[in-house]
Amino acid sequence: MNNFQYSRATDVTDAIRLLAANPGARLIAGGTNLIDLMKENVERPSRLIDISRLPLRKFEETADGGLRIGALVPNSDLAYHPLIEQRYPLLASAILAGASAQLRNMASVGGNLMQRTRCAYFYDTATPCNKRNPGSGCSALDGLNRNHAILGTSASCIATNPSDMSVALAALNALVHIAGPAGERVIALTDFHRLPGDAPHVDTNLGAGEIITAIELPSRGFAQNYSYLKIRDRLSYAFALISVAAALDLNGNAIREARLALGGVAHKPWRSLEAEAALRGKAATPDHFSHAADLLLQGATARAHNGFKIELARRAIVRTLTQAADATPQSQSHKKIA
Amino acid sequence: MAEAAHQIAERIPINLVVNGVGRTLNLVPWTTLLDALRDHLALTGTKKGCDHGQCGACTVLVDGRRVNSCLTLAVMMDGAEVTTVEGLASDGTLHPLQQAFIDQDAFQCGYCTSGQICSAAGLLAEGHARDAGEIRELMSGNLCRCGAYPNIVAAIQQAMGRP
């Protein structure tokens, strides 16, 4: 870990001021990803600005029946909060599918959105990586790319976003509240993360000097018919090869509305409004689910080792939608896939 | 930049209550809680395994919650109460989890054991594990390369009163 200076922000305005005054500084909250990256010399901040004591830990009901969650709420507190368990169980399930109990106790909601890819080449400072060292090349394109993206890739980067929480937030149309030098703004979670394009070193649309203050969930939680299915190389405590967040609003067996997001396949949670529209008004049957999977996976391309992900994703989508329709969501502790 | 930072880096005074005892330390900011415990307070019960949050050997309780001390900066913990494996027994009586690990033969080499026991203490306090499957899932942040998992689960069940 490089040597750095340390400041403790007194409030959000102070954090924004410290960021502006210290190019090369990083915010730190839970630290679970940043400290690891610093130990690997991937991140070498000149200063850490400790925001962990800022008053951003509230759960507030919004005027339109949604919920606003402070950016510093630990992941575990979010997953086990009674309002989340009751109204947004898809989010609770996705969070509990990720990391370990210790890490969930430490990691903040805002930090989860800011976590960086686990691409092995991004971590390995001896290899070229456009995300770590812009312009140096992508070692994954012709390297070991079994874990890498199949959608939204570019010639510069095929890394995936590692978050489970973000996949559920994308499906739930969550919003991200941001404060910065120019004031406050709100953007959709689906617009928060970026595709790599020719600037894979820029993970998100958070501007210089900006800080996440909260996430907001709209009122619709799809608490009756949902499932989060995560496929990985071991039963727990591993990043997704494929994950699927599915949420349905059913009238009998007819789909009034469907939400579908994929993790482990792209540089951001992957949604297709076309795939969701194709389910609207249809019966909740495997045929229709399969058609939606085809639409969601349209344009998927594989490299040498990750071709299996396309078929795995197709099957996982159908399975997850079936679990959602049957109101038998995937358990995150008993891993038999029903 | 790193060299410049090094020259002007100040040691930062922090107060911790470790296993019930108030301690004051002056630390450079890049000291992890794990290194503070082991190198500055000579509490070597907490183990450094991977040092990257992947193995759980460094698990301690901070304000009653289990965390990976290797991914925690000590300066950020100013004012916190830390419990390590050395602080679980009281008045010469083993913590029920410590006794259960002995009764169930829940370790072989022992390197992961302090982390397993502290993590299990956190798990019991959280109250979300109701059966063996949930214990396994919620203990997945603690690896045991000897493979003593069945006995670890049995020990935790014993401490829970065998649900």
TrEMBL record, chain A:
| Residues of the FAD-binding PCMH-type domain | 1-222
Task: Print the keywords alphabetically.
Answer: FAD, Flavoprotein
Give the domain of life: Bacteria
Pfam families cross-referenced by the UniProt entry: CO_deh_flav_C (PF03450), FAD_binding_5 (PF00941)
Q: Which molecular function term from Gene Ontology is one that the record holds?
A: oxidoreductase activity
Q: Which residues form a coiled coil?
A: none
Name the InterPro entries for this protein. CO_DH_flav_C, CO_DH_flav_C_dom_sf, Diverse_Substr_Oxidored, FAD-bd_PCMH, FAD-bd_PCMH-like_sf, FAD-bd_PCMH_sub1, FAD-bd_PCMH_sub2, Mopterin_DH_FAD-bd
Protein name (database record): Xanthine dehydrogenase family protein subunit M
Can you name the source organism? Bradyrhizobium hipponense
Q: What is the lineage of its organism?
A: Bacteria, Pseudomonadati, Pseudomonadota, Alphaproteobacteria, Hyphomicrobiales
From TrEMBL, chain B:
Against PROSITE patterns, the record matches this protein to: 2FE2S_FER_1 (PS00197), 2FE2S_FER_2 (PS51085)
Q: Which InterPro entries match?
A: 2Fe-2S-bd, 2Fe-2S-bd_dom_sf, 2Fe-2S_ferredoxin-like_sf, 2Fe-2S_ferredoxin-type, 2Fe2S_fd_BS, Aldehyde_Oxdr_Iron-Sulfur, Beta-grasp_dom_sf
Q: Which CDD domains match?
A: fer2
Transmembrane segment boundaries: none
Annotated 2Fe-2S ferredoxin-type domain residues: 12-88
Keyword list (alphabetical) reads: 2Fe-2S, Iron, Iron-sulfur, Metal-binding, Oxidoreductase
| GO molecular function terms noted in the UniProt entry | 2 iron, 2 sulfur cluster binding; metal ion binding; oxidoreductase activity, acting on the aldehyde or oxo group of donors
**What is this protein's name?**
(2Fe-2S)-binding protein
- Top-level taxonomy: Bacteria, Pseudomonadati, Pseudomonadota, Alphaproteobacteria, Hyphomicrobiales
